[in-house]
Every structure is written in C-alpha cells, then in structure tokens.
Amino acid sequence: MINCSDWQQINKQIELTSKQSFSIINTHPVSGGCINSAFVLQGKNKSYFIKLNRANLLPMFKAEFLGLKEIAQSDTVKVPNPLLYGSLADKAFLIMEYLSLKPGTRASDALLGQHLAKLHKIPQAYFGWQQNNTIGSTEQINTSSNNWINFWQENRLGFQLSIAESNGYAGRLTESGAKLAESISYFFYDYNPQASLLHGDLWSGNAAISEQGEPIIFDPACYYGDREADIAMTELFGGYGRHFYDDYNQAYPLHSGYKTRKQLYNLYHILNHLNLFGEGYLRQAQDMIDYLLSEISA
Predict the structure, then answer these.
(1) Annotated catalytic, 219?
(2) Catalytic residue among 201, 219, 226, 247
(3) In terms of C-beta density within 10 A (0-12 exposed, 13-18 middle, 19 or more buried), how is residue 26 classed?
(4) Over its length of 298 residues, how does the chain's per-residue pLDDT go in tens digits?
C-alpha cells in the first residue's frame, strides 16, 4: 500500500524533476494493465499518471521511460511525456503526464498510420536497443546486431522457444520451431530491412486518441528492428481500421513479402502468450510454425 508519507515523497520528486510547483489533491486508481497498479495524481492545474510495482522491477520502468522518451524525441507519433522513474521503500514507480484518452476514429487511424510511417522512416544504426526490456512480463533481449536475421533467430524466436521448452513444451513445438529458426533467411531473399525504432507491442489496447483527436501510443517495448514487426502486431488481435493501413502504405509502402513475414513476426508474440498464459496458445503457435515451414518447402 502507498501511504500519505509515500505520496508526499512522490509529490516532492515531481516538483524537483518538473521544476514546477505541484500538490496532489487527490489520487484515484485506474487500469495499469495486467502487470502494474496505476493511479492518477490530480493537482490543481495538472495531473500525472503513475505506475507502481515491486522495487525489483525498476529496470522495467527505466526501459519504458527511455522508450517513451525516444519516441517523443522523434517528433513523429505522440506518446505520454515521461517525467521520472524511481523507487520508494518496496515499490518502483514510473510517472508521466496524464492524458485523457478516448477510442480511435477513422480520422485518427489515418493520422496514426501517417505518424507511425514517419517514425519508421528514421534510420537507426543497428538492430537491438540500448538495454533489454520486457514484452508483457517476459524479458525481451535487445543485444545489438548488424544482422537482422541473426537477431530474430537468437533474440526473438530462439529465446521464446527456449522458454517454451523449459515450460514443458519440448517436443514437436520446439523441434519444428528450431527448424524454422534455422531457415528464416528464406523469407528475406529479396528483402533487406532497415533498422527503425519500433513501439514493439503495438496491439490496439496500446493506442488511443486525446481529447483533441490526436493519436497516441503508449506502453512500448521499444527496440530497433524491421518496421514490419510493428505493423504485424497491429493485425494480430485486430482493432486498427483500414484507414490506418491505407495511410501507412501511402506514406511508406510495405514490401510484397510482408504478407508472409507477418506470420513470422507474430509467432514471437504468440509464443510469448504461450509462455505467459499457458497451453491455450499452443495450437495457434504450432499452426503458425507449420504454415511458415510449408512456405519454405513449397
């Protein structure tokens, strides 16, 4: 529990970091996803959003802070401006600006497609990122590489398969998954992806619009990778309208091979769901592996 003394210390940290006077008038809990607890810290003229978790998860909040900061500095797609992260007794926290959010519209879908294309067009120097972070509550390995195929083999597909094996899914899944990992260069014979800053977890629950109708993305799992991985994630669970894809493609057309590669990229997330939530995702993961192997052998 957070007591009055804790809130006072957090209030002081906000003032020191923002260099502005602030006084918490009210705190009320809001949804922080399935991992964190979260509150809105209401002041007289300004409010903040705070996420809380165990103190040992401070690196997770640091990574989210850095990801939000980097997206914000790109001056492309809007994110909540992060203010600070830190720890307090047995709690870690992340504080950012509070934004009143609404569901997207056709117009905001189109704008989000345009803004995301601008973000993806900015070239990065390598694949990976400045530190590991998390995808859900699973560690996401971001060791830098100049070879995208090797990066995906080792740090995405291979890493999730190794977790699956340790979780008791050794057998057909991990054997066929290893076979796929060894062969994924097939999907890149005519495609050489540029390293772009990715949101990393761009399902529809991590996007909304402001009161003014501006598209906003949040809860990132950032790294430098193939932009197609971001677009693939938007299709995995639905929620993005046709205008998003139309405007993205108009600004930054996708390669023809994307229709197959999106299965490879989304396999990472389905394996992660298998490892987090159990065998309800086993059949879907196996079907995706079988489909990709059939494309190689066709």
Answers:
(1) no
(2) 201
(3) exposed
(4) 678 788 899 999 999 999 999 999 999 898 766 788 999 999 988 999 999 999 999 999 999 999 999 999 999 999 999 999 999 888 999 999 999 888 888 899 999 999 999 999 999 999 999 999 999 999 999 999 999 999 999 999 999 999 999 999 999 999 999 999 999 999 999 999 999 999 999 999 999 999 888 999 999 999 999 999 999 999 999 889 999 999 999 999 999 999 999 999 999 999 999 999 999 999 999 999 999 999 998 7
